[in-house]
Amino acid sequence: MRDGAPEIAIDARMAGHSGIGVYIRNIVPRLARLRPHWRFTLLGVPDDLLPVFSGDNVSILPCRAAIYSLSEQWALARAARHADLFWAPHYNAPLLRRGPMLVTIHDVNHLALDHGWGIRRLYATVLLQALRRRASGLCFASRFSRSEFERLVGRFRQPFWLTPGAVGDAWRSARSPPRARSARDYVVAVGSVKPHKNLTGLLDAFALIAPRFDVDLVIVGRHDGLRDSDDTALARIAEQAGRVRLAGALPDAALIDIVAGARALVFPSLYEGFGLPPLEAMAVGCPTVVSAIAPLTETCGVASEYVDPRDPHDMARGIAAVLGDDTRAAELRRHGHDQVRAFDWSRTAATVAEAMETIMAPTSRDRRSMP
């Protein structure tokens, strides 16, 4: 701490990713504005971070260690050795760190799912078990992610906070009609092509409704360079190229336009820690059809049509309920507009700042878990 100003080190290597990257990109600038007398050091690749993060109290320290690697343990601990607090926005926190450490848990899918992750699953197990004992405080993306942590990792005694995702300003300001719309109607799915995203189930459901509705299916999300890509889904997409299109990862503006122009967003995931795409769809007035799993019912409330993700027929029913009933679609748009108000990045950033202050306080070890 210099001149009474806390020095906060943040692992920002995933800032360019979807999911956790959205979390980092929205919270860090707000943290810097909320606590202008604090000093924030972002660890990552400067060329990736400089276009996104700036501010008199924000600096960047190069850190090129690969994510989920043993080298990141040493590199992060060394880079943050002089910081008053280290914030890991993902569970891959440096166990060699000596000093206060706040860790955000979005999900524990590497433990909950069986996709043959092998070494990565072992790495996740070791890290999460260690963090359960050694982290100074924990943030959870949802009540579900907290309950899953306790179920699969174990009970913990540190203070904890709920720090959910939210809808960014660009989504909130895009409620007007999109700049461009496909010549054909379509439904959209957003998510990387991984097995737990359940695109094979969605493709089965789409095949059931395709004869009844003159719509296409557009799938947006990363599909190349993944260690655990859903090869079955990729093959099926290629077979249905006439009605199914794989758009790949898109910049924010293009993603917003595609979602805003869709008849519905379908989110058929088998497992999530939070589930941001449905909320973003609600912000632009797109009706949502989502899996009836705990994290999504927690996030989406009454603003979605729920389906059984393991039953293509029920998924087809839910999609048809929106496409074939304008009244139901309008009802979901109305509820979605209200639901989005419950999630705000400024509130989440303020909670993260509160967590940091609590952990850095001299009496933090004596505090009980936060509700």
From TrEMBL:
Transferase recorded as keyword: yes
Domain (Glycosyl transferase family) ranges: 180-334
InterPro entries in the cross-refs: Glyco_trans_1
Keyword line: Transferase
SUPFAM superfamilies: UDP-Glycosyltransferase/glycogen phosphorylase (SSF53756)
Keyword Transferase found: yes
Full protein name: Glycosyltransferase involved in cell wall biosynthesis
